[in-house]
């Protein structure tokens, strides 16, 4: 049973805080192991990667077979059914169309003192995308990571995807090809992150690593952060549905379950202003759980982390939503736009009852790599900007330097940075000489 | 003596790689200590912060005196000379004028299928800015961190600045007031980062922490990353000057020294296409080092990490610059714009000989918090975007869902995510029923 809360109950605040603070993350003590793996890959390169892959994935590789060959890529893509291929091509096209609009603008202007100021965006040269293997090997995630990189103009795109016992998901390979990936390595775990960050004789290092992964991958990304850029440390998925009673309980039950089926530590929460409707949705969830293929996972998630919260009105729903800062927020209410205006912290908002969250996972267009665990308070979903960086530009003229240089000199002196001050002063002196 | 390299020498590549790979970062083993400090602050709140401040800063505080009072802020600001105040106001005004242009645009459009798509930016609710104490207590950094936050629309801005033995820099307090900071806490180190990330009874938690600091602060920021957002792990400062012979060697010597004087592990590099000019600059550096106030620090930096590189032409200079990915890049050449076009990885570019880097530290307008240690390959200087996040928006109509829903269902099934597929299917079925 999920928890049922009511904002009118006297102990609501304590219960809601407990819900917010519930620790869902599996955090095994992997950091020491990861540190050793990274050091090993840095020291021994391909040999370490190959040994670790044999140990963890039961797969014997050589430097020559670390990457899929062009023929292997071709063969895997050929296994995909036309129906799946068409669906993936539609998804790729829509994701690309959305992300193209995110390309940032350069700027350059001249200020009243005559100084030219601005900035210029440029793509990172090389990016590496991690794709989990096994249960969580989602081809859609390949599109969601690789297409923004491609749109940004990244020159070299690599993927690491483990293939335990040699098992390959052909759709992952097809997604990589659709998204313009240059190299696909069949390696995973911390060793893959280390190889992409530091490079090996066979695997060229990249500048930015993105993509979800297990606790080892997350710990490795945290450790290589600084040497390369990373996207975020992904946590278990979550959805908040805010709904009034004018909804089909079964639809919302499926929306809640579409998060719960990801992971037994995923979280699905319903907020409604109608307690009876909340009960109806909970009953619909139980009914669907009887037959759902992933009922063990989804049922555990719903039982342990699910919640149905009854509120007085939708303003209260918005306030609670802002405290939850959900990864996914579905607004199944009469005026979803008005409610969206009031919800400030959310990774992605799905407006109205015709927009199930699953649309956003595949074909909506926006990215499905989104901030989890309340991090929508301070971070955004993956975008083209994650694969670009900004260089600021400044050019002084003699008269601009004459106008603002003395203030710089004053501040440099106040900070006891004499050379800073002198580097301005020597130029100002020249100007004064010349104007004599 | 700095190293002198020449790109025509046969062993240049090895020497340049060694220069790139030189480890400048002091990295004492502070991580365990920091982990204990964070745990202590989480467990004991104000009491832990107060004890640690007494131990490290020799300053006895109470919960009531953790923050500067309004009267104390007023008193400190009153100590600043009119000249310093005017300079700081000019700096604040110019920094604000630059950053206002960085405010990002929201977007909302309807696609050919009738789906409404877009995104919306919003500020983080609360930000905490770390300001080092002692030697590296730079008021200009307060402006550079706080003004972008203020321009972003952050509602609550806090600063932590340690005041060892109670020593306060009045300019830091004035800068905080000019930049709209709400609370100034006289605490530092890992305990300050922990307090801002997790909150204490007296110090409200924030969503994002920015600002430079020592190894303890850096390790603490890395550890709280995820609980809150952080800007970057700042490393020692660096400058690359690319210059032809039509420059005053003394000007460039001072520009190189203005980085070297920051820190003995700072790095200053000159690339020139004229070996004799390179020697002249090196001589000018030595001459200035005889009298410079910070000659011990600047001299050690120049001796241990300085470099003068002679290249065949400016294209080669640009190529080397891209491998260095410098924090600061000064282009003192006849056509700096053309050379800037070729330099892709740099935190900030200063164009032409009238733009000493020190202008950018104070009054240029662009931010002086910039990516160090080659991280300009994948990251940008601090900006308004660091204090905002993006929520994606999607709204399907029944007909849009009819058009793209089946592809989502297909992909969900291919990923064995049944509830995802059903959440789309139940809606498509309703549409089919209605159209009968």
From TrEMBL, chains A, B:
This is Histidinol dehydrogenase. Signal peptide: none annotated. InterPro entries: Ald_DH/histidinol_DH, Histidinol_DH_CS, Histidinol_DH_monofunct, Hstdl_DH. Zn(2+) binds at residues 259, 262, 361, 420. Its cofactor is Zn(2+). Catalyzes the sequential NAD-dependent oxidations of L-histidinol to L-histidinaldehyde and then to L-histidine. Pfam families: Histidinol_dh. The active site is at residues 327-328. NAD(+) binds at residues 130, 191, 214. SUPFAM superfamilies: ALDH-like (SSF53720). Substrate binds at residues 237, 259, 262, 328, 361, 415, 420. It catalyses: L-histidinol + 2 NAD(+) + H2O = L-histidine + 2 NADH + 3 H(+). The keyword Zinc applies. Pathway: Amino-acid biosynthesis; L-histidine biosynthesis; L-histidine from 5-phospho-alpha-D-ribose 1-diphosphate: step 9/9. Binds 1 zinc ion per subunit. Belongs to the histidinol dehydrogenase family. GO terms for cellular component: cytosol. Keywords: Amino-acid biosynthesis, Histidine biosynthesis, Metal-binding, NAD, Oxidoreductase, Zinc. It is an enzyme of class 1 (oxidoreductase). Its EC number is 1.1.1.23.
């Amino acid at each position: 049973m999920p928890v049922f809360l009511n904002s009118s109950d006297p102990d609501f605040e304590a219960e809601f805080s407990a819900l917010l603070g519930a620790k869902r993350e599996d955090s095994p003590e992997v950091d020491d192991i990861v540190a050793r793996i990274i050091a090993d890959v840095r020291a021994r390169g391909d040999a370490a990667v190959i040994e670790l892959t044999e140990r963890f994935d039961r797969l014997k590789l050589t430097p020559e077979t670390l990457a899929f060959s062009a023929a292997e890529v071709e063969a895997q893509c050929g296994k995909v059914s036309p129906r799946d291929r068409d669906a993936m091509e539609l998804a790729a096209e829509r994701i690309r169309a959305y992300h193209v609009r995110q390309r940032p603008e350069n700027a350059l202007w001249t200020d009243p003192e005559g100084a030219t100021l601005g900035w210029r965006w440029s793509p990172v040269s090389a990016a590496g995308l991690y794709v989990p293997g096994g249960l969580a090997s989602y081809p859609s995630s390949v599109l969601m990571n690789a297409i923004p990189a491609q749109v940004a103009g990244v020159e070299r795109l690599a993927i690491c995807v483990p293939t335990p016992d040699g098992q390959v998901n052909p759709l992952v390979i097809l997604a990589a090809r659709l998204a313009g990936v240059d190299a696909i390595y069949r390696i995973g775990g911390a060793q893959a992150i280390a190889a992409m960050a530091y490079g090996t004789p066979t695997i060229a290092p990249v500048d930015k690593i993105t993509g979800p992964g297990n606790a080892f991958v997350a710990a490795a990304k945290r450790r290589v952060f600084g040497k390369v850029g990373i996207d975020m440390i992904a946590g278990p998925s979550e959805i908040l549905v805010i709904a009034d009673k004018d909804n089909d309980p079964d639809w919302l039950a499926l929306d809640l379950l579409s998060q719960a089926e990801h992971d037994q530590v995923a979280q699905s929460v319903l907020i409604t202003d109608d307690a009876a409707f909340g009960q109806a949705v909970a009953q619909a969830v139980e009914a669907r759980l009887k037959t759902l293929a992933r009922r063990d996972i989804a049922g555990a998630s719903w039982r342990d982390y699910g919640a149905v919260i009854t509120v007085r009105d939708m303003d209260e729903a918005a306030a609670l939503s802002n405290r939850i800062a959900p990864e996914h927020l579905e607004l199944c209410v009469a005026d979803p736009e008005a409610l969206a205006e009031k919800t400030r912290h959310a990774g992605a908002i799905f407006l109205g009852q015709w927009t199930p969250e699953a649309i956003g996972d595949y074909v909506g267009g926006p990215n499905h790599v989104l901030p989890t665990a309340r991090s929508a308070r301070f971070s955004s979903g993956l975008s083209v900007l994650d694969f670009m960086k900004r260089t600021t530009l400044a050019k002084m003229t003699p008269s601009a330097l004459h106008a603002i240089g003395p203030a710089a000199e004053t501040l440099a002196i106040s900070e006891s940075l004499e050379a800073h001050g002198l580097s301005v002063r020597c130029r100002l002196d020249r100007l004064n000489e010349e104007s004599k």
